[in-house]
Write a structure and sequence with these properties.
Elements (H helix, E strand, L loop, with lengths): L2 H18 L9 E8 L6 E2 L1 H14 L6 E6 L3 E3 L2 E11 L6 E12 L2 E9 L3 H12 L6
Parallel strand pairs: 1-7
Antiparallel strand pairs: 1-2, 3-5, 4-5, 5-6, 6-7
C-alpha cells in the first residue's frame, strides 16, 4: 500500500470517527510518538494527545454547527509527505456560512503518520474570529 492509499484510508476513517466518535479507529494510522500541529502555533505530541487535539477541534467547532461540508483537492505525494488543500464550510441556521481553508501535510514514517500539520490559508484565522464575534453566541456550547 502506498502512502497515498494509506492517507485516503485515514481520511475515510476520520470521517467515520467524526460520525461515531470512535477515536481508537485511527490508532493504526499514527506512530505512537506522532505530532499534530493544528495551525494555531501549538503541537500535540504522542498519539493520545494527537487524538485529544483532533477531538477537541471537531467538538469545539464542527460539531457546534448544524452541518458541515468538507471538500479537498486530490492528495499529492512528495517523498514521505502527503499534502492536500481543503475547504470546510460550516452551516448554522440563521447565520451566514462560515468557511475555513488550508493545506494539510501528513508525513509518514514506516507506513504511519508521524507528523500531521494544518496550515490555514491567509485570512482564515481572522475570518473565523470575525464570524465567531458576530454569530458565535448562536452556537451551542
Amino acid at each position: 500500500m502506498t502512502n497515498l492509499e494509506r492517507f485516503q484510508a485515514y481520511a475515510d476513517a476520520f470521517e467515520e470517527t467524526y460520525s461515531d466518535d470512535n477515536w481508537q479507529r485511527l490508532e493504526e494510522f499514527f506512530t505512537a510518538d506522532a505530532v499534530y500541529a493544528p495551525g494555531d502555533g501549538t503541537e500535540a505530541v504522542g498519539r493520545d494527545q494527537v487524538f485529544a487535539q483532533l477531538r477537541a477541534g471537531v467538538n469545539g467547532l464542527d460539531r457546534r454547527f448544524d452541518a458541515r461540508t468538507l471538500t479537498a483537492t486530490p492528495p499529492t505525494s512528495q517523498g514521505e509527505t502527503i499534502s492536500l488543500s481543503w475547504q470546510l464550510a460550516l452551516h448554522k441556521t440563521g447565520a451566514p456560512e462560515l468557511t475555513a481553508a488550508g493545506v494539510e501535510h501528513a508525513t509518514y514514517t514506516n507506513g504511519k503518520i508521524s507528523r500531521l500539520e494544518d496550515i490555514f490559508d491567509e485570512g482564515t484565522p481572522e475570518g473565523l474570529g470575525m464570524w465567531m464575534a458576530k454569530y458565535g453566541s448562536a452556537l451551542p456550547s
